[in-house]
């Protein structure tokens, strides 16, 4: 028998989803962005802001796994020969530490390097999808859309970092492809709290123009309902 739809209190109004048609997408919870001693911190960012969401992400992930939902993890990752990294992307940003350079946890944003791995607290499990993406968005130059379409996924729940860069870009890409998206407010973070707040406001403005937002608690409650 088909499981009933689930509903939770969200902003700007209730979010309704069916678990078999919904995927949890965790964006770029990689050691280089989140951990002390990584790329993010070496650029002068306060990584405690990103670390603080790990327990919330763990709680949602655990409830999602228990409910049997599809899980997708992404990593911002380039090929070692940088063939998938446009020079414009590499040349912008901090000149002393560019994509492909040797950083504190291996080559910056290169697939397979220690800093490119997902933090151990949120490590992917067998059967979960891990998408390496060369862009900020999870759909650009990746098999994500085909994978989701193949599984009948119509709704996406987002968590991860950073809110205004890779999370927001991915959510906008998903919205344009027809997915109904929810962003977990306390499951996402930015090095710049004002950018996070602005993103939450932009996403849910004008009747959920990009999607919905909600704290983790009602989402978890809906999973256990
Ligand atoms: C992500 C970035 N993951 N800020 N990357 O947001 O460059």
TrEMBL record:
Domain of life: Bacteria
Pfam family, one: Isochorismatase
Domain Isochorismatase-like: 22-210
Keyword hit for Heme: no
Protein's UniProt keywords contain Hydrolase: yes
Residue ranges of the TM segments: none
UniProt-recorded Gene Ontology molecular function terms: hydrolase activity
Protein name as catalogued: Cysteine hydrolase
